[in-house]
């Protein structure tokens, strides 16, 4: 995705938004800006412009999810810090999303997906530096 998103993904996120205020949370401001322009919807930039801003804390993310304001988080592959900016705060957020989120398979929203895409298992997925993954979080995921 490289900070942007396909029209298929945007359509999927809008369809499965379930009343959330935010369409998606992404690593950096550049990717968020691209998504806002292409979707016309509000998007959260978790790590700021360069990926070093600690704007998103684990407590804040849990609050947004618990209140139903956010369901989808993109990790890895985006501009501005890769999977989470490289700080202790972003690493904590990333680890929590990996553990509690449900990976959205590319085949769930893309018609042109091959069988080698993500497995759909959060524990089996790896948000490598060039690869991004979308995770679904719900209030039941917040402990």
Strand content: 5-15%
Radius of gyration: 13 Å
Question: What is the ordering of alpha helices and beta strands?
Answer: HEHEHEHEE
What is the number of E strands?
Answer: 5
Helix/strand class:
alpha+beta
Low-confidence stretches: 78-84, 115-130
Q: What is the number of helical segments per DSSP (H or I, 4+ residues)?
A: 4
Tell me which oligomeric state these chains represent. single chain
Q: Order of strands across the widest beta sheet?
A: 3-5-4
Largest sheet: 3 strands, antiparallel
Mean pLDDT: 81
Gross geometry = globular
Report the span from N to C terminus: 30 Å
Helix content: 25-40%
Task: Describe the protein's topology.
Layout: H1 7-15, E1 24-26, H2 29-39, E2 43-45, H3 58-66, E3 72-75, H4 88-100, E4 102-104, E5 133-136
Parallel strand pairs: 1-2
Antiparallel strand pairs: 3-5, 4-5
Characterization of the model:
With 143 residues, the chain is of the alpha+beta class. The chain has helices spanning 7-15, 29-39, 58-66, 88-100; strands at 24-26, 43-45, 72-75, 102-104, 133-136. The protein is globular. The protein starts with 6 loop residues before the first helix and ends in a 7-residue tail after the last strand. Residues 78-84 and 115-130 have low confidence and may be disordered.
